[in-house]
Design brief:
Order of helices and strands: HHHHHHHEEHEEHEEHEEEEEEEEEEEEE
Shape: globular
Radius of gyration: 29 Å
Strand order of the largest sheet: 2-1-10-5-6
Distance between the termini: 71 Å
Helix content: 25-40%
Low-confidence stretches: 532-538
Number of strands: 19
Structural class: alpha+beta
Largest sheet: 5 strands, mixed
Strand content: 15-25%
Length: about 550
């Protein structure tokens, strides 16, 4: 009786797919262990490839991802890479049952891609290629072992013959490889945790210095406490985070150093944390805003920062701003992960509270927000001022050097634009008729907010009540009591800054230097005595 070729091929395909997946798991676990052993978690294949993808992604696509996924964009990217690797692993396994050398070559090729991605990262060294190469070598070896073991026995071959095994034996081998991979992965995790233990311990030991110049208490009335409106000071865990770090750097405060050098630096400095904090320490409330924030977007937060005045440190190093004849007009800050951010020297030395910050809301900086030291400059978007995990300050010129984001179509300099946002009612809200508090925040850092106005359905602008001002560097809360009438309505808001300039209603996107336009929210008000209905519209940003 003739056998059915399609039926005999199915077990081979299953063997190939399983072998490919298991080999990939073993390779990734080994690569993670190699990266952890080298103290370079950012050199692991998924992280290195993810970082390269972020670098190569067009600005429009990156902004779309931020709008769609928010601060979960890095998680989505990592999961996407893993899904792609799983698909490639299955395909490689299927190829292996037909042509094993070709499948092993494909595995090696992916290892090379990971190695090149790791080497392309800022601050990379040749050792960063090793985790991907180790992972590819292990993956290729496991693929060879499983595919060879899973081949059907030739007719008449005795049980247990060399080079093949029955299904149960193959299954036991798969389980053994997966168990070994899990052990390797656990070892990598523990080794990585041990590697960051010093950083964690250094943060736990770090005691914030008492400020020489403390910030005054937040004024009574700054926080309007309107339901649906967030607190005046943003809690650390709710503060937005937009950066390119797929793995949050965990820097040991005891070994941290800051180097200050470059054009016009008469006295180059290298400071440890103790030396930095030997200077006067000041406290200041500052609202930060990301340039990727769409009109009405969430990427703004207000915190009480503690640190040393950056301008004072630069003057100690002999730096003069351009207005005083200094040769450098750009201060390039570099992070431990190689990120570069360019800031105007004139701005950080004009007397504003530009800080080398070590504290946030009364506690040491969280790792995710730059521990042990980051820059905070009121009035500038984060991409040109707010370098986290700071390790170097280099004086140069805008003509001589383009920082990371400038090389990706963003403007060299970007002052925060006047913006206002409706936080309540929410988009799609279904409201009862009568008095409804319309409330939100407005910001124009280093200029302050003078007034906020709201209008309904394109009608006349109405004056909102402002919360008390906490200086010119923070946002202001506002509220307007609206006598809501039945039907669909559109609410709009605009602000006027401390110079008297009114927020423009001209709609532009975030690129190259921040979005403009009025935030609008569509709502529906129920008829008197009526039930709820479908929402009339949405947040129109």
């Amino acid at each position: 009786m003739e056998s059915d070729p399609s039926r005999s091929a199915r077990p081979r395909r299953t063997t190939g797919a399983v072998s490919g997946i298991v080999a990939a798991v073993a390779g990734l676990a080994s690569a993670q262990l190699a990266a952890a052993a080298a103290g370079r978690p950012e050199a692991s294949p998924v992280t290195a490839v993810g970082g390269a993808v972020v670098d190569l992604t067009p600005v429009a696509v990156r902004e779309w991802a931020i709008r769609l996924f928010g601060t979960s964009d890095k998680l989505v990217l990592g999961l996407g890479i893993l899904v792609l690797l799983a698909a490639v692993a299955v395909g490689t396994g299927l190829l292996a049952v037909r042509h094993l050398p070709a499948a092993i070559a494909v595995t090696g090729g992916f290892g090379l891609v990971g190695a090149l991605a790791a080497l392309s990262r800022p601050e990379a060294s040749w050792q960063d290629a090793l985790p991907s190469l180790v992972g590819a070598l292990v993956s290729a070896g496991v693929l060879y072992l499983l595919v060879t073991a899973g081949r059907p026995r030739p007719a008449g071959a005795p049980p247990g013959g060399a080079g093949s095994m029955d299904r149960r034996g193959f299954g036991r081998l798969v389980v053994a490889v997966l168990a070994a991979s899990a052990g390797v992965g656990l070892g990598a995790r523990r080794l990585g945790a041990h590697g960051s233990a010093d950083a964690t311990a250094s943060r736990a030991r770090f005691v914030l210095p008492r400020p020489t110049v403390p910030a005054p208490p937040v004024p009574a009335g700054a926080d309007l406490r309107v339901p649906g409106l967030g607190p005046f000071l943003t809690p650390d865990q709710d503060f937005y985070r937009v950066d390119t770090a797929l793995v949050v750097p965990r820097v040991d405060a005891d070994t941290w150093r800051l180097r200050i050098h470059g054009e016009g630096v008469a006295r180059p400095l290298t400071l440890d944390l103790r030396q930095l904090l030997a200077r006067p320490v000041v406290e200041h409330d500052i609202t930060l805003t990301c340039v990727s924030n769409e009109v009405g977007g969430p990427y703004a937060g207000n915190a009480r920062w503690l640190g040393v005045r950056l301008g004072d440190v630069l003057r100690e190093a002999g730096v003069r701003p351009p207005s005083e004849g200094g040769p450098a007009d750009q201060l390039v800050a570099r992070s431990v992960d190689g990120m570069t951010i360019g800031t105007p020297v004139e701005t950080v030395m004009d007397g504003r509270a530009a800080l080398l910050a070590v504290g946030m809301n009364g506690r040491p900086l969280p790792f995710a927000h730059g521990f042990p030291v980051r820059m905070v400059v009121p009035g500038l978007y984060g991409y040109v001022s707010a370098c986290k995990w700071l390790t170097e300050l280099r004086l140069t010129t805008f003509a001589a050097y383009d920082a990371y984001w400038v090389r990706r179509s963003w403007a060299q300099q970007a002052t925060v634009k006047t913006q206002s946002r409706i936080d309540t009612p929410r988009p799609y809200a279904d409201l009862a008729p009568g008095r409804v508090p319309v409330a939100g925040v407005a910001w124009a850092q280093h200029r302050g907010i003078e007034r906020v106005q709201v209008r309904v359905d394109g009608g006349p602008w109405q004056e909102a009540r402002l919360g008390a001002a906490d200086g010119v560097d923070t946002w202001r809360q506002w509220v307007w009591p609206w006598e809501a009438t039945p039907g669909p309505h559109t609410l709009e808001v605009r602000a006027t800054d401390g110079t008297g300039a009114v927020q423009t209603g001209v709609r532009t996107g975030t690129v190259p230097d921040g979005a403009t336009g009025w935030h609008a929210v569509d709502v529906r008000v129920r008829a008197l005595g009526g039930g709820g209905g479908l929402p009339a519209g949405a947040d129109r940003q």
